[in-house]
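Researcher: Sequence recovery benchmark, item below. Answer with residues only.
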């Protein structure tokens, strides 16, 4: 099957309905297009989703992580434990605050931060932990917060990919410490660009608002003060209206993603891929929102590299992605003393992972097509 004979299947495509598109047009016509009433409503609905906890929106998930660190009091001289298997923003924001990222290797099964190794990395300088819920799969929250309580550490949950995920029946965001969501274009709920930070109380929410807009506090018609160093991180009403249109569908989105993930496991139950050693994610259809479906390639058993594998998929009309190269092997981090061999599980995962298509408009027939393509490539190029 060639690309010319079938429609191209991207690895992600947002679902935005006509009512949302019409709603965005109304916002544009209203004359109030930056942060305003739509954003206030979006924050209120997100708060209700998170069990009534205060929620503040931002223009990116990266901003929510950085502000979360600042609210947690992280700064120069502190250390923050996190995973090297994430988008680089997770650790970049630690450096931005003046603190030091301390990486801990991943659990090769869950591909998340290996909590059994975290306590070994704690020092007197450790101030916080940033776990990452890769592909929407949470870490063991009970274990995570037991560590945090015992060592008096703050937790900033990098739940960028986990909106709609849960732990033991409770939505991510309903409990815990600070929780950071991303609403980037490829996320399960999108505002095109954007994010939200779930906070513990109104004092933290007010501080988040200050950091969001230049540290400013307004009183009355003309009162204004600046008492903290903030930035420009506010979400526009145009973006908030997209989020308001997405939120009522999130449970349907999650159910469809889980259905497609189940179809992937069924599609890979037999064939050359598994026989050759292709790795599949954990089969969690309760907690994970299935933001992504990632396989790992048995590169030692293939006569082509990952790029060649992805190109072979493209030639069959199928898109794919890479999420993520190990952070500590980027030049910025090598310059800080990191090198190969320090976190072998994350390195192996980062070098071999391929993200397959998974989005709500896909059908199970699309999944069958992808599985057949993967099996065919493995059969053709297996050693």
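Model:
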């Amino acid at each position: 099957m060639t690309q010319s004979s079938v429609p191209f299947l991207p690895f992600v495509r947002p679902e935005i309905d006509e009512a949302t598109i019409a709603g965005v047009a109304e916002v544009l016509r209203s004359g109030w297009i930056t942060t305003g009433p739509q954003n206030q409503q979006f924050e209120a609905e997100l708060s209700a989703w998170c069990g009534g906890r205060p929620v503040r929106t931002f223009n990116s998930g990266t901003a929510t992580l950085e502000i979360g660190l600042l609210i947690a009091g992280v700064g120069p001289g502190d250390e923050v434990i996190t995973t090297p298997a994430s988008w680089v923003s997770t650790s970049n924001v630690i450096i931005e605050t003046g603190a030091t990222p301390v990486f801990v290797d991943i659990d090769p099964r869950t591909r998340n931060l290996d909590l059994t190794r975290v306590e070994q990395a704690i020092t007197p300088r450790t101030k916080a932990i940033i776990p990452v819920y890769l592909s929407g799969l949470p870490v063991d929250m009970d274990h995570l917060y037991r560590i945090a309580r015992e060592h008096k550490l703050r937790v900033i949950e990098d739940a960028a990919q986990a909106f709609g995920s849960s732990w033991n029946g409770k939505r991510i965001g309903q409990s815990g410490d600070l929780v950071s969501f991303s609403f980037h274009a490829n996320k399960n709920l999108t505002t095109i660009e954007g994010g939200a930070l779930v906070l513990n109380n109104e004092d933290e929410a007010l501080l988040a608002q200050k950091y969001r807009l230049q540290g400013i506090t307004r009183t009355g018609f003309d009162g204004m003060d600046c008492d903290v160093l903030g930035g420009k991180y506010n979400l526009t009403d145009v973006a908030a209206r997209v989020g308001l249109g997405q939120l009522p569908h999130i449970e349907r989105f999650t159910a469809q993603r889980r259905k497609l993930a189940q179809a992937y496991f069924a599609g890979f139950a037999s064939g050359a891929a598994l026989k050759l050693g292709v790795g599949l994610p954990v089969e969690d259809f309760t907690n994970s929102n299935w933001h992504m479906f990632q396989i790992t390639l048995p590169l030692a058993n293939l006569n082509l590299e990952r790029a060649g594998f992805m190109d072979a998929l493209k030639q069959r009309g199928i898109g794919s992605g890479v999420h993520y190269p190990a952070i500590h092997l980027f030049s910025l981090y090598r310059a800080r003393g990191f090198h190969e061999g320090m976190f072998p599980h994350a390195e192996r995962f980062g070098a071999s992972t391929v993200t397959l298509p998974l989005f709500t408009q896909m059908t199970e027939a699309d999944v069958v097509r992808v599985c057949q393509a993967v099996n065919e490539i493995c059969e053709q190029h297996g050693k």
